[in-house]
Amino acid sequence: MIGVSDLTLHLRVAGREVSSDLQSFYALYRSAPEQLRAVWQALDEVLTEQYPDRTEDDPGVLLGRVLPMLKPMSLLNEVRSQDLPMLVYRPLVGELMVTYVIDEGQRVAYLNEEHLQRWRVSETTLWAHSITNLRRKPWQPEPGMIGKGTAALLIFSGGDGYDATRLLLPELFTAFAAQIPGTMVLAVPTRDFLIAFSDADARIFMQVRTQVETDARAQEHPLSGQLFTYRNGRLALYTDNE
Fold it and tell me: What is the DSSP string of the chain?
């Protein structure tokens, strides 16, 4: 950090001097002090992950590395407030969107509209390549199923940063959906956790739903307290009258 003047933070990120007006982040903190961790994470993502430090700039090579990353739509407000290049994104469902990243090991670099112009590729191209790359990406441990029937849970928590993003791959849930009664419900409270469960038992359903909502507020890298399902092969918001 270089310094702070008034509510402006001065940083050196990847060799660049970056200044950020903290007014909007301070306002978020004042309105919800218990969300300090989430506010800090939003600031970190807006500032540091916008400035990839890499030498590779060949679109052909980078398209082989691009991956999707789920984020809350609210992140766009912070990008706009900092007058940063707009992220490349695709609205998904509910409060979620798909962003695109180049995985650099310890962190990821988010792609913005300047990258699209420089590489002369479209968001549709990023989407197609990123989904293909996600399908090919190995991860450990494999998703784990616990319980049976109405109490069955399918959990993705491998810790590679893409557990929640695998919500985009419907084929991963086909076998589980066939083994449970009722409707399969999906939740991604945080970046590193995805859970699938049945809505057939009202008590179990409410227990899981409450925990999802709590985790989305309290855990690191929060995403959404909303519930989702696959309807006719398309991801949709889950409704209580499914």
Answer: --EEETTEEEEEETTEEEEEE-HHHHHHHHH-GGGHHHHHHHHHHHHHTTS---S---HHHHHTTEEEEEEETTHHHHHHHTTPPPBPEEE-STTEEEEEEEE-SSSEEE-BHHHHHHHT--HHHHHHHHHHHHHH---SSPPEEES-GGG-EEEE---SS-TGGGGG-GGGGHHHHHHSSS-EEEEEEETTEEEEEESSSHHHHHHHHHHHHHHHHHSSSB--S-EEEEETTEEEE--TT-
